[in-house]
């Protein structure tokens, strides 16, 4: 029993250490490398030069903080969506939620002339919610009802439609195009120190709602009838889950763009690690693990994007898609998934 308790603690410790190391590397590496000891001195308020202080505090601390918060939001929303639908293909990007939020932002900027983050973040929430409802309605059509593959196909169709509408707006509006090109590929660049603080309340509320769903999600995994017999109010649980997904995805997309596949890949990795640690499919562990693993992936992709194309950079969303695309294809081709 002692060994079983130690393994989850060890897993969390190792993931926390990996995240801390990546955060340090994110502050140190880029177009201009800063030695780690100088980064630590700058964080302590004793920067060796004004240049180091500006690089660390003005450019890289906001960028790293944004990767931490937005990455955790996307990972948590993906894990929540997969658990809520019992669908291993569920992901805010694959199921059109990110595309809905992105289209709503472009609509706000290009048509209504809203350029402030606090202005268009509400449109991101609305777009995410509408896209979620439409995909679920389409995925549930037909005699067989909702299946993982049908839901994924509905998500792809809605995503394609929304991207076509988005392109139609940005091609005819210079302001919308200027805003769109920075975050369409999932960009963490050009972040100021106020960006995280502006969306943090939305992300915090979404995270609390998501984590509060964990016990009910364990019951839902046994089936709706069993969950209802255990006293779970299924409608309330699903409403709470949709609210959490909308807040987390809408806020994350508003600040970093429609980064896809994080919510798909990370929960599967979390389940593998949880199984190895003897935790099992307990959502009380899987949701927090996904919230830690997602920023690890996003920060690693961001660092790699800065290094492989210096002095320019490749957007983090491009590298995440490069990893997630093959993973998505492998998931669809799995025999046991095709039989669901």
From TrEMBL:
It is found in: Cell membrane. The keyword Ion transport does not apply. Keywords: Cell membrane, Membrane, Transmembrane, Transmembrane helix, Transport. One of its GO terms (cellular component) is plasma membrane. It is a multi-pass membrane protein. The chain crosses the membrane at residues 64-81, 93-114, 120-139, 151-171, 199-221, 242-265, 285-304, 316-333. One of its GO terms (molecular function) is transmembrane transporter activity. InterPro entries: ABC_BtuC-like, ABC_transptr_permease_BtuC. PANTHER family: FE(3+) DICITRATE TRANSPORT SYSTEM PERMEASE PROTEIN FECC-RELATED, FERRIC ENTEROBACTIN TRANSPORT SYSTEM PERMEASE PROTEIN. Belongs to the binding-protein-dependent transport system permease family. FecCD subfamily. This is Iron ABC transporter permease. It comes from Streptomyces fructofermentans.
